[in-house]
Target: Ubiquinol-cytochrome-c reductase complex assembly factor 3
Amino acid sequence: MHFPWLRFTGVAIGLTGFGYLFMKATVPTEEQLYNRMAPDIRKKVDAARVLREARENEVKKQAEAQTPAQDVDPDQLKPIWANPPSRK
Model:
């Protein structure tokens, strides 16, 4: 006996497509979800969003502060252990 690969593949693609279309039709977008929220929950969401953005900006500032300037000699940026040992 042989396995019906063509039918199996067709059924798998059909089920996957149906699931995707069903999800797209039933799951609300972020904007729709936000608009359905109660006002007190919206305030909490807005406060959390502001806090998250402030943290992200702080991380960006730290990353920029640690990034070396473009006019620095690349040899000065190497760690000290990358230098070959001196011969005495």
Remarks:
- Residues 39-66 form the longest helix (28 residues).
- The CA atoms of residues 30 and 36 lie 10 Å apart.
- The chain is about 70% helix and 0% strand.
